[in-house]
């Protein structure tokens, strides 16, 4: 979620801070900044100082290096929870989907407690974290205690690899949620080397799960994106991360090549910022009501989704809005379905702001989803969670039997239990 929205598109973080008031800009100066000054502006000192020292983290990896990093991650620490190597006895993989989880507060613990029970009964072997993994502006180092407070401890017992993607709060500098300092995301990549469950071999990556039974083609392939450089609410100052800079050009080339080459039966794109969204942040191209400029509106992410992803991936899974939405595939999406699953710690405002066709949606409750895939079907279960009792309720199930690559998919919502 973007708690702070700039007054107009295409401001830098510094310009935004000065527009917000001289006191806030001054509070960003390190060393002698009193906590009280930051608190008076509603911004934690840790947040400000973190932004002031950003930029010294790892460089983004080119595609070849990424592939080597993936291989290293797969073969890494002996005690790392392994990626599932075959479908379960029913022929299915079960994957937990969560988003916008990283507060470390009671609501996150309640949702993960409820999810833990479902993971046990459903045989979950893999999990996904759809970004905003560490509120409010990402970790301060690659061994920050926030990794423990906002990820490891809440998720204890969900002992599987978590495919993590970068959200705007993971990549923010001076303005929490702006997405204006992508280099901070490198700390989350570095952390993956020392965690048993945090899987992020590079800033964007793909993962395949085998079909089993000696079949050569994967059953499912995940493509995890870094959407921040083209969805930030401020201008990217670092030329490397500009909307048309080398990082995004390379990521687009990688995604296009990887999707084209994929032989997986099911293809799932993971990106923090949604393509379509009925929640308050709106859809790519008009995020938060902005429709001008290279940033804020997400217009270049819209282009990426429409030109590279739609019609090739079965599902785009996103967070950012703290809601639960299973949108319908349409002609506009060329058969690709959009999910929004960002209610693992916070909730929406209870209101549908837009009218994209939805199989099911909820704007007020916490929750998570479960993806189940076999050779014959892809099923998405949406669970809402009662925070007081820490119990999950299956609210909706959507089942699809035909991959997008095979033509227009058949969606068969099975209703509410
Ligand atoms: Fe977000």
From TrEMBL:
Which intervals hold domain Calcineurin-like phosphoesterase?
A: 95-323
Keywords attached to this Swiss-Prot or TrEMBL record, sorted alphabetically, are: Hydrolase, Signal
Stored PROSITE patterns? TAT
Q: Where is the signal peptide?
A: none
Name the InterPro entries on file.
Calcineurin-like_PHP, Metallo-depent_PP-like, Metallophosphoesterase_PAP, TAT_signal
Q: Which Gene3D superfamilies match?
A: 3.60.21.10
Domain of life of the source: Bacteria
SUPFAM superfamilies from the UniProt entry: Metallo-dependent phosphatases
> Which GO molecular-function terms appear in the entry?
hydrolase activity
| Protein name, UniProt field | Calcineurin
Please name the source species.
Streptomyces rimosus subsp. rimosus (strain ATCC 10970 / DSM 40260 / JCM 4667 / NRRL 2234)
């Amino acid at each position: 979620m973007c708690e702070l929205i700039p007054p107009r598109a295409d401001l830098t973080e510094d310009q935004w801070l000065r527009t917000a008031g001289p006191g806030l800009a001054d509070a960003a100066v390190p060393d002698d900044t009193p906590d009280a000054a930051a608190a008076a502006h509603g911004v934690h000192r840790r947040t400000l100082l973190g932004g002031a020292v950003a930029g010294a983290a790892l460089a983004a990896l080119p595609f070849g290096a990424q592939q080597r990093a993936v291989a290293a991650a797969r073969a890494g620490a002996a005690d790392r929870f392994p990626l599932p190597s075959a479908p379960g006895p029913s022929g299915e993989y079960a994957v937990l989907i969560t988003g916008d989880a990283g507060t470390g507060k009671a609501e996150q613990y309640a949702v993960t407690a409820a999810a833990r029970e479902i993971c046990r009964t459903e045989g979950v072997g893999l999990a996904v974290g759809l970004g905003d993994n560490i509120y409010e502006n990402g970790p301060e180092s690659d061994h920050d205690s926030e990794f423990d407070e906002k990820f490891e401890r809440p998720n204890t017992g969900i002992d599987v690899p978590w495919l993590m993607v970068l959200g705007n709060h993971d990549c923010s500098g001076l303005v929490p949620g702006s997405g204006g300092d992508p280099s901070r995301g490198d700390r989350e990549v570095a952390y993956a080397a020392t965690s048993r469950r945090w899987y992020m071999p590079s800033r964007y990556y793909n993962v395949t799960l085998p079909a089993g039974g000696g079949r050569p083609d994967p059953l499912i392939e995940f493509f995890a994106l870094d959407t921040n450089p083209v969805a930030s609410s401020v201008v990217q100052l670092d030329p490397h991360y500009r909307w048309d800079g080398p990082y995004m050009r390379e990521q687009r080339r990688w995604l296009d090549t990887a999707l084209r080459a994929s032989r997986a039966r099911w293809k799932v794109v993971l990106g923090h910022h949604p393509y379509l969204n009925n929640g308050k942040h709106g859809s790519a191209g008009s995020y938060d009501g902005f429709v001008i400029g290279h940033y804020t509106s997400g217009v270049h992410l819209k282009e990426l989704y429409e030109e590279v992803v739609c019609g090739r991936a079965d599902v785009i899974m996103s967070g950012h809005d703290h809601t639960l939405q299973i949108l319908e595939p349409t002609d506009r999406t060329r058969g690709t379905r959009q999910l929004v699953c960002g209610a693992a710690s916070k909730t929406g405002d209870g209101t549908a702001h837009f009218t994209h066709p939805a199989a099911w949606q909820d704007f007020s409750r916490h929750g998570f989803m479960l993806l189940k895939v076999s050779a014959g079907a892809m099923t998405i279960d949406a669970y809402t969670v009662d925070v007081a009792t820490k119990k999950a309720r299956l609210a909706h199930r959507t089942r699809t039997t035909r991959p997008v690559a095979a033509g227009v998919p058949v969606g068969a919502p099975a209703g509410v239990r």
